[in-house]
Design a protein that fits this description.
- The protein is mainly α and about 50 residues long.
- The chain has a domain of about 25 residues.
- The chain is about 60% helix and about 0% strand.
- The chain has 2 helices and no strands.
- The longest helix is centred in the last third of the chain and has 16 residues.
- The mean pLDDT is about 90.
């Protein structure tokens, strides 16, 4: 018996474009997303502990 699969894609092109536009700012540790960079060590420690 031959199996068939249905593949669905859940991609929103507008959402992708929004995050692509933010990408250059995301990687700047002194930029708009600095608070996220600042808490990252605490977040990683929590993840590793649990």
């Amino acid at each position: 018996m031959k199996e068939s699969r249905v593949v669905s894609v859940n991609v929103d092109d507008e959402e992708i474009a929004k995050f692509e536009a933010l990408a250059h700012r995301w990687w700047d540790p002194a930029g708009d997303f600095r608070p996220l960079h600042d808490i990252n060590p605490v977040r990683l420690a929590y993840i590793c502990a649990h």
